[in-house]
Amino acid sequence: MMTTSSIANPTDAAIVLRNVTGGYTNRPIVSDVSLEIPQGAFVGLVGPSGAGKTSLLKAMLGTLPRVSGEIILNGVPVRSGTPPAGIGYVPQTETVDWTFPVTVEQVVMMGRIRSMGMLPWASRKDRAAVAETLERLGIGGLAGRHIRDLSGGQQQRVFIARALIGSPRLVLLDEPTASVDIKTRDDILHLLVDLNLDGTTIVMTTHELNAVAAHLPWVVCVNGGIVAQGHPRDAFTNAILSKTFGAPMRVLVDEQTGGILVAEGHDHGPFGDRLIVAAGGQPSAIGAAAAPLPLSAD
Predict the structure, then answer these.
(1) What are the boundaries of each domain within the chain?
(2) Which of 163, 172, 176 is nearest to 112 (CA)?
(3) DSSP state, 99?
(4) Sign of CA dihedral 40, 21, 208, 260
(5) Which secondary-structure segment (H or E) carries 152?
(6) What is the pLDDT of residue 112?
(7) Where would I find the beta strands (DSSP E) of the chain?
(8) pTM of the prediction?
């Protein structure tokens, strides 16, 4: 119930990790990770800060300094130090130097470097592709703006555009909904769902359990390794989330809507129950696990 089906032929999978251990020093951050994600899946990696979510993405990209085990993306083995072709990547916005003098168009153009050939400048075709991608993401009028002058949601869309400009089959996103308002978060998630419905495999990290992860079709709970995986109705239980986050957690379900609500297990005083009820409906302790759903957004 808590695992994906085995994929006999790795070319049928978007991602295959076999016994992957890695980190930045001799002390590993993730250990003995084995994971298979089919083509066309929409998957969220959830866990606390320092759990290894970003490290797993970097291992897939070939940029984690110390890695052992086997990593295969779209049927091609990943070599350390060599980012795989055909993969889109959206980093955490907090890692970006927003003072660097670069425009929106220039940032997105960086995603076409591999296909630009020997010429040191962008062709008319390259510029047209950038303009089309910016329009697709609703930021076509921002091409000449400096990235520091954009809102958080606009900045996130720029880096999603950079990831998409190469028409990847797989997109990896590190906390794409962090530090944005509710509307922007929902807009980004709807954009990712649309991409997934077009056939793009989406893997994103998030620590937002109620706002993001509970609505995803498949989640992988991470804390130094794979704790559990499945549909949120299966993977989000008191025991699994308490083990994942290293703290008491309570999982509740709204009896009217079936929606999941995750709360800390500690008693936070007389307003705790009121806050839970205010989140909607009459929540109760989550019961028997539901059947796993397919690994896709539809």
Answers:
(1) 95-167
(2) 163
(3) T
(4) positive
(5) helix 152-164
(6) 86
(7) 13-23, 30-38, 42-46, 66-73, 76-77, 87-90, 170-174, 201-206, 218-222, 226-230, 249-254, 260-264, 283-285
(8) 0.83
